[in-house]
Amino acid sequence: MFQQTSYLATADGARLAYHRQDAQTKAQGILILCHGLAEHAGRYQAFAEFMAALGFHVYAHDHRGHGQTRTKDTPQGRFALRSGVEKVVDDVKTMRDFALANHPDLPVILFGHSMGGLIALRTATTYPDRFQGLAIWNSNFNLGLSGRFARIVLSIERALKGSDVPSAILPRATFEAWGKAIPNHRTLFDWLSCDAAEVDRYIADPLCGFSASISLWLDVMEMATRTAIPDRLARLPRDLPIHLVGGGEDPATNKADATRWLGQTLKKAGLNDITMTIYPSMRHETLNEIGRDDAMADFARWTFHAVEADLIHSISA
Question: What spatial distance separates the first Cα and last Cα of the chain, rounded to whole Å?
């Protein structure tokens, strides 16, 4: 866990809780981290320290309704009363602008894990000229008929119960089903990692594993089903470096089939600088998996490629 939490005010009055790890050597760039559903940015300290040692200023904030970020209309488990997707996207841009003001003229790489990957791609397609690299790990944009069905179920639940209460259906269809999909599972959170100690840390963390509201699930479904689509992807620079990661034993992404689908979809959209790695034995949380050091090293090599690509682009421009 990070030792210190800072706060950044947003235009609509929110106080974003964030953690910062400054580069420990000559600065190469800025890394903005987006965490997943029902967790928080504090879990990314080891990754932040690793990247800071290589020359990256790292900023990781708690999304609304997660960790220590709260607003007047954002209890735990909800982005916002209204316009939740737009608000969490603008929060990422706010963190990006704040980081760049602290470290001018550096390339900015946006990283997202799981739900954070949904937010990262949504942000990049909303502000396509603000990032020089995009990393999407363990995210599922290929929900197909199940995604449409989930939206219908959530809409019915909202009509019957309101949007601020936990969904009774989605946890069973996601977290619980993924847990049961792991052979001989020890806990229902074994789908996160093969590392039992990391699973136990997640379970013991009071800021992890909470029940998401119907509102939050609807916002997640909006990003999952309406972001990796041609109209939005067409906004991205064709040569934007993109880094995709999946786990071959991750039930949340159909054993990385969703990662492969995203890679193919990006290529069809004309993106031409895509790196994709599937780690065969890993589950959902690559950064908390057995073999995480290799995954971080692979990512570090890609970041230097992204920084070099940005430099070449700047010179040619």
Answer: 41
Asked if residue 138 belongs to a domain, the reply is yes
- Model pTM? 0.96
Residue 212: give the domain boundaries. 6-316
Q: Give residue-wise pLDDT tens across range 33-58.
A: 999 999 999 999 999 999 999 999 99
CATH of residue 191's domain is: 3.40.50.1820
Identify the helix (H) or strand (E) that includes residue 315.
helix 292-316
DSSP-assigned beta bridge partners for residue 18: 6, 61
CA–CA gap between residue 220 and residue 198 (Å, rounded): 25
CA-to-CA dists, residue 185 to 103, 144, 273, angstroms: 45, 27, 38
Residue 1 belongs to a domain: no
Number of structural domains in the chain? 1
Average pLDDT of the residues of the chain? 95
Q: Calculate the alpha carbon distances from 280 to 97, 101, 117, 132, 257 in Å.
A: 37, 40, 20, 28, 12
CA-to-CA dists, residue 200 to 115, 185, 204, 206, 262, angstroms:
21, 13, 6, 12, 31
pLDDT tens-digit map of 142-199: 998 888 889 999 999 999 999 999 999 999 999 999 999 999 999 999 999 999 999 9
- Cα 274 to Cα 47, 82, 232, 267, 295, distances in angstroms: 22, 34, 17, 8, 16
- Single-letter amino acid code for the residue at 287: L
SS3 141: coil
